[in-house]
């Protein structure tokens, strides 16, 4: 099952933070959750490209690397759907906070035959919350590592 999402997509999503990146920020944890809910609504409707598009203004990464991940996700979407079926929604799994500066939100994109984990990590920069990293992939087992 792990082969259904290309390594390039997973690698691009674990992006390196670059100091020169200028991201929009969210002012509160409530806004962070609202954004990820909107992103997952798009993912849960099979609109992965739109989901990535909603995140890009808040990314603390080199936009070229982000766009590479988005292009990879766009091109692999049909192959993913052939293996797991169409998206049929999403589910919020949990929120974890480390200190005052990091929040991790975990969701699943629900498909006809498999859950696809999505994980977002937000960093509280001096101007507000922004996306530090995010990933989606086939490792459903990771949801149970606690």
Throw out a few tags for this protein.
4-stranded antiparallel β-sheet; disordered N terminus; alpha+beta; 146 residues
Quick structural overview:
The chain has 146 residues and is α+β, with helices and mostly antiparallel strands. It has helices at residues 7-13, 29-44, 48-55, 63-84, and strands at residues 87-98, 102-111, 115-125, 128-136. A four-stranded antiparallel β-sheet has the order 1-2-3-4.
Description of the structure:
This protein is α+β, with helices and mostly antiparallel strands. It is built from four helices and four strands. Strands 1-2-3-4 form a four-stranded antiparallel beta sheet. The chain is globular. The two termini are 22 Å apart. Residues 1-21 have low confidence and may be disordered.
């Amino acid at each position: 099952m792990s082969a259904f999402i290309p390594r390039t997509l997973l690698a691009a999503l674990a992006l390196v933070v670059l100091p020169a990146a200028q991201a929009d920020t969210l002012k509160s944890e409530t806004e962070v959750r609202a954004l990820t809910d909107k992103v997952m609504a798009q993912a849960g409707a099979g609109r992965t490209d739109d989901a990535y598009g909603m995140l890009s203004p808040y990314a603390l990464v080199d936009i070229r690397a982000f766009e590479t991940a988005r292009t990879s996700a766009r091109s692999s979407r049909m192959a993913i759907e052939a293996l797991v079926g169409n998206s049929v929604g999403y589910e919020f799994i949990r929120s974890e906070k480390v200190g005052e500066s990091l929040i991790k939100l975990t969701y699943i994109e629900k498909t006809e035959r498999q859950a696809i984990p999505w994980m977002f990590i937000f960093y509280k920069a001096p101007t507000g919350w922004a996306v530090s990293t995010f990933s989606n992939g086939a490792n459903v087992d990771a949801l149970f590592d606690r």
